[in-house]
Amino acid sequence: MGEQQHVKFPQEVIDEYAALGVDVVAMFSAGHLGNRMGVQIVEASADRVVGTMPVEGNTQPYGLLHGGASAVLVETLGSVGAMMHGGSTKIAVGVDLNCTHHRGARSGLVTGVATPVHRGRSTATYEVVITDENDKRVCTGRLTCLLRDAPAAG
Q: Whole-model pTM?
């Protein structure tokens, strides 16, 4: 998780969470599952979230990137985007995830870029495009999150 300290966040997000005593890098991380899969968040804002994941270690028996691994990347990046949109007073909970797998990847890193489709008061939907190192589309996913009030501190 040490590499995630180089994540690009908007300064206003850093300031908002610092005032609350919250570690922004930990808050907007890939979480335990994502860390085990090697997901790294590179850039995060409500407008765009970028992350990478190695193919190695995340393959199915045929040696191709596992569709479930792509789904983890989609859910991670879309959730971070929804959390950034909701701000410190909201938490994002995924309610719908879909992925279309376009081509296989056998090695290297895949990169996911999440961009908003809808950002409302109670839901946020992000499209995530995953590409291989040759910039070929591997998967297109969409995640919708419910934005709930964050629990009161204490």
A: 0.91
Q: Which residue has the tokens 């999150």?
A: 145
Q: Which residue has the tokens 């968040």?
A: 41
DSSP state of 65: B
Give the up-direction half-sphere exposure of residue 152: CA atoms within 13 A in the CB hemisphere. 1
What percent of the chain lies above the pLDDT cut of 90? Answer: 76
The closest alpha carbon to 47, from 93, 13, 71, belongs to 13
Catalytic residue positions, numbered:
75
Reference 128, options 137, 120, 140; nearest CA is: 140
Give Cβ neighbours of residue 52 (< 8 Å, ≥ 6 apart). 39, 40, 42, 109, 110, 111, 112
Give φ, ψ of 91 to 5 degrees: -120, 150
Q: Which two tokens stand for residue 10?
A: 């908007």
Instruction: Look at residues 119, 85, 100 and name the one whose alpha carbon lies nearest to residue 16.
Output: 85
Nearest to 136 by CA among 65, 69, 71, 81: 65
Residue 1 has pLDDT above 50, yes or no: no
Provide the pLDDT confidence category of residue 154 given band limits of 50, 70 and 90. low
